[in-house]
Amino acid sequence: MAEKDNPLYKFATAIYYIIDTPVTFIREKFVVPNQKKYPWYHQQYRRVPTIDECYTDDVVCYTEANCQFMRDKSVEDEILFILRSRFEQCAFYHGDDDYLCDDLRKTYDDATAAWFAKYGDMGIGLNVKNAYMKQKHRMIWERRHGPVGSGMRDQPTKA
């Protein structure tokens, strides 16, 4: 006898659909359309224009861009903290077998390198304008000499 011909199976399936059909209908027709698309549980700030979109004499735009930059930095600091904590916990748990944590180590090292490329060597003058100038100078350097860390070319190319 096939499973679908079994009376117990038919009874269980009927009970399942009696309970599931109204629940699925209400969820699909009322709950899901009225949900927020991104249910965040922390404060969300609107993205403001970046420093390269501001006029030179627009103090309000500069201040908003600087606040956005500082918020982004604090988020990236917390991401690094979480990645470092995960790696340290993995290394502590596995002890001598820390090769099991190589993927976490690589992720943390990549994130650290990206953080340093953006915020490193900024000193006390950490603001959006100095970070923008650092990014501009790095791009000019890479255009003339190749990627940073690869050594200088023999003949710099004209920018």
Automatic annotation (TrEMBL):
Keyword Transport in annotation: yes
Localization annotation: Mitochondrion inner membrane
Keywords, ordered alphabetically: Electron transport, Membrane, Mitochondrion, Mitochondrion inner membrane, Respiratory chain, Transport
Signal peptide: none
Membrane protein topology class: Peripheral membrane protein
One GO term describing the cellular component: respiratory chain complex I
Matching Pfam families: NDUFB10
Family per similarity comment: Belongs to the complex I NDUFB10 subunit family.
Protein name (database record): NADH dehydrogenase [ubiquinone] 1 beta subcomplex subunit 10
Organism: Lasius niger (Black garden ant)
